[in-house]
Design brief:
The chain is an alpha+beta fold and 303 residues long. It is built from 7 helices and 14 strands. Strand 8 (199-203) and strand 9 form a beta hairpin.
Length: 303
């Protein structure tokens, strides 16, 4: 069963690992995305492509023989993390807090980088990373992929009807639906939906305010660890994603959770080395667990 990082950390006996997971789960995405614990180096499953036909028959006649079609799918784990090196003199002079800060900063960078990969990861350009939603649902697939929906033929102000169509395209099957967008798109949505009273503000389980549209909480993704915009690099032409998180929907995958290893002092320099590593990935188990709304101009005037 897939668990969020916040739930999984309750089972950890390593205080340092719990602190790392707490920092990872501080973001709006990783606080709600469940991670499915798997064995081996990947997840393998059969995706239902079509159902067999059914019908009626006459007396002394048989039913037409048809079969459901399935297709083998797989998603491999990726090796994600980094090394933290702190001069031993800094630790001796400033105390262990200096090293703890560097570990926390590295973990925060991992969280921001993971959020960026969730959208923009592309194994074709960087084989070591997993594919994000933009790669799985390319804008060019409009017309051939039912999960890619256009806001308009060209970048325009948000059409709430098109957004509702994208929401309906996602099959939650008992999971939780979310909207994923940039801050500029969220502000634009607020202006568009305020007139029809379709937005609300709630507090999530961590006590933070979160906007809700048509019953769906909004997850805001801003910038990655290198201060690069994740979703609104081009504010006048961006996408909004609708996702359904769950064990058999859209889920993170991992083997063993986040690992923190103290490697001691390096042999070639007076630095203390800590390695944070996470065998993780992203799996779209149900092809209808995500949809993309393209051609959204968050700078357009709202009437």
């Amino acid at each position: 069963m897939a668990l969020t990082l916040a739930e999984a950390k309750k089972h950890s006996t390593n205080p340092q690992e719990r602190a790392i997971v707490t920092e990872l789960a501080a973001g709006s995405l990783l606080s709600v995305l469940p991670f499915r614990e798997i064995q081996g180096n990947g997840l393998f499953w059969k995706r239902e492509e079509s159902l067999g036909d059914v019908g009626f028959r006459q007396f002394n006649a048989g039913y037409e023989e048809t079969y459901a079609e399935v297709k083998q799918q797989s998603e491999s784990l990726k090796l994600f993390g980094g090394d933290i090196k702190v001069d031993r003199a800094i630790v001796d002079l400033e105390g262990p807090e200096a090293r703890a800060y560097q570990i926390q900063a590295k973990t925060r960078a991992m969280r921001l980088a993971w959020e960026a990969l969730f959208i923009n990861g592309d194994s074709n350009s960087t084989a070591a990373e997993f594919d994000g939603l933009a790669t799985r649902l390319p804008a060019a697939a409009y017309g051939t992929n039912s999960q890619v929906i256009r806001n308009a033929s060209s970048a325009s102000a948000l059409d709430l009807g098109a957004l509702d169509e994208a929401i309906d395209a996602v099959d939650a099957q008992g999971g939780s639906k979310y909207l994923v967008m940039s801050k500029s798109a969220r502000r634009h949505l607020t202006k568009r939906a305020r007139l029809s009273a379709q937005i609300d503000i709630m507090r999530n389980e961590f006590g933070y305010q979160q906007m809700v549209y048509a019953g769906l909480p909004v997850i805001e993704l801003d910038r990655d660890h290198q201060n690069v915009a994740i979703l609104d690099g081009t504010a006048n032409n961006q996408s909004i994603y609708v996702v359904a998180f769950g064990n058999d929907l859209l889920t993170g995958i991992q083997n063993g959770g986040v690992q923190v290893r103290d490697l001691g002092e390096a042999t070639d320099s007076p630095t203390l080395v800590t390695r944070v590593e996470w065998y993780c990935g992203l799996a779209l188990v149900n092809g209808r667990a995500a949809a993309r709304l393209t051609n959204v101009d968050a700078t357009a005037a709202v009437s």
